Amino acid sequence: MARSPFPGMDPYLEDPTIFPDLHETLIGIIREQLAPRLAPKYIAELTTELVIEEVGTDDQSLLAIPDVTVTQAKEAAVAYAVMPVEPVRVRVPMTIPMRVVSAYIRLRENEKLVAVIEIVSPVNKRAGRGREKYLKKRATFLDSRIHFIEIDLLRKFARMPFDGKLPRCDYLAVVCDGYQRPNCDAYPITLRQRLPVLPIPLLKPDPSVPLDLQDALNTAYERARYDLRIDYFKPPNPPLMSEDDEWAATLLKHSAVQ
Questions:
Q1: How much is the pLDDT for 65?
Q2: Contact between residue 166 and residue 186 where contact means Cβ atoms under 8 Å apart
Q3: Which of 10, 68, 97, 162 qualifies as a cystine partner to 4, CB 3.0-4.6 A?
Q4: C-alpha span between 188 and 25 (Å, rounded)
Q5: In angstroms, what CA-CA distances link 6 with 155, 250, 251, 255?
Q6: Are strands 113-119 and 209-212 parallel, antiparallel or unpaired?
Q7: What is the pLDDT of residues 181-224, one digit of tens each?
């Protein structure tokens, strides 16, 4: 079986050409992992939402406007000097519908929504309409008794807001137990750490069920054969910090992918 050379999250999976596929694959495996642990009282289902992604000239989806110079032709004694009009290549912002999949845990008896598991996607995290829409949905869950689990496996863009200080981390998982809010358990994760086992809370008095996030990621990597899509000889996108770059280079040098 193909395995990632990294002990936890593989930073090469954050590439914009790969992460959308990882997002959908991983959330499906999370549902698959939880379903037998929830049965027969609870069920896990996948819900798909279409989010409009604003694609512009940079990560902030801004419109590129070229400089414009206005000149007036000067009259010569005999003839006019005519400057040819040359096109300037610019980009206009476009909107693309993106599929974002979440995992919902419901009480089988009456389909009451008990918990929501979200993997943060670039369209959720990047400044713009997608982030604003996600934050509104997030606030709706947090204002209720629904348990909310948020998994952020992206180093790029500002993290979702919450109160409290965290140590330096590359990734973050937050478990918001509806019975304990406004307090939540945050799991700061560095590139060199194994992804945690998260406790997924249920209705009282039922105990939480474990979600082995690293096992789910490993399964996604193996099933999708991401090793065939990743070129480990090139730097990841986004790039690593200098100290992690040296560590990753040593790791890859001694791994089977080299």
A1: 31
A2: yes
A3: 10
A4: 23
A5: 15, 11, 8, 9
A6: unpaired
A7: 999 999 999 999 999 999 999 999 999 999 999 999 999 999 99
Tens digit of each residue's pLDDT (9 = 90 or more) over 137-151 = 999 999 999 999 999
- Triad 215, 147, 49: Cα angle to 5°: 75
Residue whose C-alpha is closest to residue 147's, from 38, 50, 60? 38
Confidence at 84, pLDDT banded by 50, 70, 90: confident
Tell me what pLDDT residue 224 has.
97
Q: How far is residue 25 from each of residues 13, 222, 230, 239, measured CA to CA in Å?
A: 12, 11, 16, 24
Question: Which amino acid is located at 60 in the chain?
Answer: Q
Residue labelled with tokens 């610019």 = 90
pLDDT score at 92: 64
